[in-house]
């Protein structure tokens, strides 16, 4: 993604390049649900989760279409405020990962279910510091735990999937305690929904939406929860 300048002229020129290369989209599978999960606290209506798994366009697009999710914001996590800018993060030297902050109703969907979708559909958790055509630590597979309980559930789930050899090789996913999350620039928000035919999106990310609908029909919603709609509301 970082090689694409986000202007109409550049995207049009880049289309010729992206259409000539094979798809890097990973093969999705519905992995077993976690054996441990977080119980919803009585009366709790809002919780947050932060996941990194490659370019945030696709990860955001997936979770915007999950029932129980009210918002999913593309941004940066793992680094400092002064480097939380797209041009800085793209260097791979900031500590940031392209991430998505998910706001969800724990009465409708659990943290464990979000993790199951993350590992099944949103990205390939066996890739180290890359996803598809994108390389660098900013594209790493990381769960940014908001608290000790989220860290416990995420670590237990990774161990469960590794022990079962679900992917045939060890997961590269790390669990980090969450640092401040910084929302990405406005032009990155809702990018998949606004540009479904853009070559990078069509090749690498739209298949994830199809996989979500196919593998998790009980969790799929056709109308995404968009950042722009949340702001205007």
From TrEMBL:
Recorded catalytic reaction(s): these are: L-methionyl-[protein] + [thioredoxin]-disulfide + H2O = L-methionyl-(S)-S-oxide-[protein] + [thioredoxin]-dithiol; [thioredoxin]-disulfide + L-methionine + H2O = L-methionine (S)-S-oxide + [thioredoxin]-dithiol
Give yes or no: UniProt keyword Oxidoreductase.
yes
**InterPro entries from the UniProt entry:** Met_Sox_Rdtase_MsrA_dom, Met_Sox_Rdtase_MsrA_sf
EC class (word): oxidoreductase
State if RNA-binding is listed as a keyword: no
- Report the EC number(s), separated by commas if there are several: 1.8.4.11
- Ranges of residues in domain Peptide methionine sulphoxide reductase MsrA: 48-200
Q: Which GO terms describe its molecular function?
A: L-methionine:thioredoxin-disulfide S-oxidoreductase activity; peptide-methionine (S)-S-oxide reductase activity
Active site residues of this protein: 55
Kindly state which keywords UniProt assigns to this record, in alphabetical order.
Answer: Oxidoreductase
What's this protein's function? Has an important function as a repair enzyme for proteins that have been inactivated by oxidation. Catalyzes the reversible oxidation-reduction of methionine sulfoxide in proteins to methionine.
NCBIfam families of this UniProt entry?
Answer: msrA
Q: What HAMAP family does this protein's entry cite?
A: MsrA
The UniProt similarity line reads: Belongs to the MsrA Met sulfoxide reductase family.
Q: Mind telling me what this protein is named?
A: Peptide methionine sulfoxide reductase MsrA
């Amino acid at each position: 993604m970082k090689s694409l300048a986000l202007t109409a002229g550049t995207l049009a020129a880049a289309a010729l390049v992206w259409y000539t290369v094979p798809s890097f989209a990973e093969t999705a599978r519905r992995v077993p649900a976690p054996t441990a999960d977080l119980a919803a606290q009585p009366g709790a209506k809002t919780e947050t989760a932060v996941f990194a798994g490659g370019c945030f366009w696709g990860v955001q697009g997936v979770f915007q279409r999950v029932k129980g999710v009210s918002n999913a914001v593309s941004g940066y996590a793992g680094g400092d405020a002064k480097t939380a800018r797209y041009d800085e993060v793209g260097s791979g030297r900031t500590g940031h990962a392209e991430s998505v902050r998910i706001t969800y109703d724990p009465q409708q969907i659990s943290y464990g279910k979000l993790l199951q979708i993350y590992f099944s559909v949103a990205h390939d958790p066996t890739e180290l510091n890359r996803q598809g055509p994108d390389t660098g630590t900013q594209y790493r597979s990381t769960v940014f735990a908001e608290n000790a309980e989220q860290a416990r559930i995420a670590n237990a789930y990774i161990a469960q999937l590794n022990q079962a050899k679900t992917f045939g090789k060890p997961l590269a996913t790390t669990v980090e305690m969450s640092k401040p999350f910084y929302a990405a620039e406005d032009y990155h928000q809702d990018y998949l929904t606004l540009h479904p035919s853009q070559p990078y999106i069509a090749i690498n990310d739209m298949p994830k939406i199809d996989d979500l609908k196919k593998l998790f029909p009980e969790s799929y919603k056709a109308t995404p929860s968009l950042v722009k709609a949340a702001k205007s509301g």
